[in-house]
Structure to design on (228 residues):
């Protein structure tokens, strides 16, 4: 599966080399803590039918003692709120996580300002359905204009149609099952970025190398094919 992702190069999305390299050093600890998922672009089979009734999701990200990324989520389902937990392994030395045994082939941050929001790409495969998503993670219940703009930029750049994108309904019932709304954001995120201050930091894109970001654009247009 991974072969297809890495070999489908030269599609959309041009990212300045300096930004790509710098964000490639993102410390996973900068993603830790509570998040709301406020917007989603997805190629999941039933997403376009169900998107208008999907509510804001809650996510809590932590690191295990083995340095696995643990992602706990709470979302609305047919039987009320559904909570799940997955642990992801870091791939090589890059800021890319995966757990193929759970159907997660690729989990990466595409854009972030290291403080308020993150745009997250995920490649998934469940049974015979392979698809990908772009999600807008926000520390607050309402995303900033900058965050919304970057979510839209990446969704369009990766070929998602307007009907494959959704702003989630502002029902926080399930999100708050897992999030303590009063919980402060752990540690000043920007203090982990050497040589940068709050006023100097701008949102940066593409935390991996440019060819692989281009590969995302190509692969996101179609399901993964069997290659191994």
């Amino acid at each position: 599966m991974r072969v297809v992702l890495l070999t489908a190069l030269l599609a959309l999305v041009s990212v300045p080399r300096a930004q790509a390299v710098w964000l490639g050093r993102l410390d996973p600890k900068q993603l830790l803590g509570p998040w709301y998922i406020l917007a989603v672009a997805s190629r999941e089979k039933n997403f376009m039918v169900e998107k208008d009734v999907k509510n804001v999701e809650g996510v809590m990200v932590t690191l295990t003692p083995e340095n696995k990324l643990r992602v706990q989520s709470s979302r609305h389902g047919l039987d009320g709120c559904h909570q799940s937990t997955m642990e992801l392994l870091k791939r090589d030395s890059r800021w890319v996580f995966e757990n193929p045994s759970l159907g997660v082939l690729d989990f990466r941050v595409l854009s972030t300002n290291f403080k308020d929001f993150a745009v997250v790409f995920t490649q998934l495969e469940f049974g015979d359905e392979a698809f990908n998503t772009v999600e807008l993670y926000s520390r607050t219940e309402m995303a900033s204009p900058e965050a919304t703009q970057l979510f839209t930029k990446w969704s369009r750049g990766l070929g998602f149609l307007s009907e494959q994108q959704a702003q989630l309904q502002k029902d926080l019932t399930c999100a708050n099952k897992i999030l303590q709304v009063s919980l402060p954001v752990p540690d000043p995120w920007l203090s982990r970025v050497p040589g940068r201050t709050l006023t100097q930091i701008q949102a940066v894109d593409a935390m991996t190398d440019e060819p692989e970001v281009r590969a995302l654009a190509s692969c996101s247009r179609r399901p993964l094919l069997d290659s191994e």
About this structure: Confidence is low (pLDDT under 50) at residues 1-23, 181-203, 222-228.
